[in-house]
């Protein structure tokens, strides 16, 4: 009986925290980008504090799950993704680990760490949006475009004259993911080109899925409308038949 009650408390805790934790996981990448490229010391300090706050939240959630689960050993074995998120999101400095490391490589490492945490968080909590295919496809597409923009901004800002603001990076991300390829903004570093290759491969898949989902949504809406019309006609015929039967019964049994 105690095990059942403990499992119920654990399930309630997971249901309450999964959406906020997924949101925090998605915030890691932009917070790291702001922390690494902020021109204001105050903004940089604020981003650093937010980074620590997110990590503390991850640690708190993991510890709470371990405390609430009725089978700790099984949970620790199965919840390795939760622990991986905690490890990857540690707000440790990248600079100073290797002397003379280029700034753009530092930016790439920070971005990859944030993007990995975001991907893991979305993967673990994808069932929150998955019941609605349109919302899930839209959210996934927006996340990929945002991560692509943050990635190229991390490695190309200050090096590429065409990527001076995050808006330039976002424009490049949309153009690249949709394979339009205007060519007005393009990466000039090896790290930026690597991000571009990844974004193009992901963009072909997810933008295509998003487009197909929109088409399927309107097609399904049309089919639902047809089904509603058919049901309305059937109900009208049943009402008419019921009226005829009632009239016949009154005639037979006055």
Note down, in words, how this protein is organized.
The protein has eight helices and no strands. The chain is mostly helical. It has a domain at 1-94. The longest helix is centred in the C-terminal third of the chain and has 63 residues, at 190-252.
Low-confidence stretches: none
What structural category characterises the helix and strand content? Answer: mainly alpha
Helical amount: over 70%
* Coarse morphology: flat
Ordered list of secondary-structure elements with their pairings:
Elements lengths: L1 H36 L3 H28 L3 H7 L1 H9 L14 H22 L8 H24 L9 H12 L12 H63 L2
Characteristics of this structure?
single chain; 254 residues; mainly alpha
Report a brief summary of the structure:
This protein is an all-alpha fold and 254 residues long. It has 8 helices and no strands. α1 packs parallel to α6.
């Amino acid at each position: 009986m105690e095990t059942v009650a403990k499992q119920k408390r654990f399930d309630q805790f997971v249901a309450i925290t999964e959406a906020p934790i997924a949101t925090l996981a998605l915030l890691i990448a932009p917070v790291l980008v702001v922390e690494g490229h902020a021109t204001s010391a105050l903004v940089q300090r604020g981003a650093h504090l937010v980074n620590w706050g997110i990590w503390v939240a991850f640690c708190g959630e993991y510890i709470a799950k371990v405390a609430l689960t009725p089978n700790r050993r099984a949970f620790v074995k199965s919840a390795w993704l939760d622990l991986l998120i905690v490890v990857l999101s540690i707000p440790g400095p990248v600079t100073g680990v290797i002397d003379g490391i280029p700034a753009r490589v530092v930016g790439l490492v920070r971005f990859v760490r944030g993007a990995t945490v975001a991907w893991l968080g979305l993967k673990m909590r994808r069932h929150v949006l998955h019941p609605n295919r349109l919302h899930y496809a839209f959210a996934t597409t927006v996340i990929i475009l945002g991560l692509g923009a943050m990635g190229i901004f991390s490695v190309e800002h200050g090096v590429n004259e065409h990527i001076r603001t995050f808006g330039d990076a976002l424009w490049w991300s949309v153009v690249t993911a949709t394979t339009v390829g205007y060519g007005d903004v393009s990466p000039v570093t090896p790290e930026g080109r690597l991000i571009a290759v990844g974004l193009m491969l992901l963009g072909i898949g997810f933008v295509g899925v998003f487009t197909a989902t929109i088409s399927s949504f309107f097609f399904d809406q049309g089919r639902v409308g047809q089904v509603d019309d058919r049901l309305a006609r059937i109900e009208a015929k049943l009402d008419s038949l019921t009226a005829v039967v009632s009239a016949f019964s009154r005639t037979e049994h006055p």
